[in-house]
Q: What sequence folds into this?
């Protein structure tokens, strides 16, 4: 199995098969416009611009499941991303990424790349882990997405290679991306 068995709705409304990305390396990321990690859009766009001509695509999936940090419509999300961060990589419709209503793609991604914990030696990892322990301890259970901007690296055959948690910066993925290109 690979990610190519799934389809998703683009932010503009049309359904697409992820098979259209066959042969490309991918970063699949759940996003939000009002999150402390939202500035990662800027570095995701930089990574996209640097590697898109070598076969990288970044697929953004906005989600309102974490602190209701993506409250707007799909149109609002698209405008926000373009105006504030110049996002030109593909965005998809607002999507549930954890729980009973999670898109099957995200169930597959988290099954293939389980949660291994946050790097609590880094301030952002320590902060997010402490926040979840105190406010949403159930979020730390299992392998599901823990927060906005969890990133999954996918090889050119559609297989999940690595998971990067919210607290890991997009630029820190470059060495792993380069191995796939």
A:
């Amino acid at each position: 199995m690979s990610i190519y068995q799934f389809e998703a709705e683009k932010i503009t409304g049309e359904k697409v098969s992820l098979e259209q990305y066959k042969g490309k390396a991918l970063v699949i990321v759940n996003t939000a416009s009002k999150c402390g990690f939202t500035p990662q859009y800027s570095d995701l766009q930089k990574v996209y611009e640097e590697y898109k001509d070598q076969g990288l695509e970044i697929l953004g999936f906005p989600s309102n499941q974490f602190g209701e940090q993506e409250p707007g419509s799909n149109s609002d999300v698209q405008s926000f991303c373009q105006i504030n961060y110049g996002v030109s990589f593909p965005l998809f419709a607002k999507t549930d990424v954890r729980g009973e209503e999670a898109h099957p793609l995200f169930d597959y991604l988290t099954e293939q790349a389980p949660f291994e914990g946050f790097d609590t030696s880094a301030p952002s990892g320590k902060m997010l882990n402490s926040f979840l322990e105190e406010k949403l301890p159930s979020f730390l259970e299992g392998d599901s997405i823990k927060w906005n901007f969890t990133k999954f690296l996918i090889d050119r055959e559609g297989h999940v290679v690595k998971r990067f948690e919210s607290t890991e910066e997009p630029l820190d993925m470059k060495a792993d991306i380069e191995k796939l290109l």
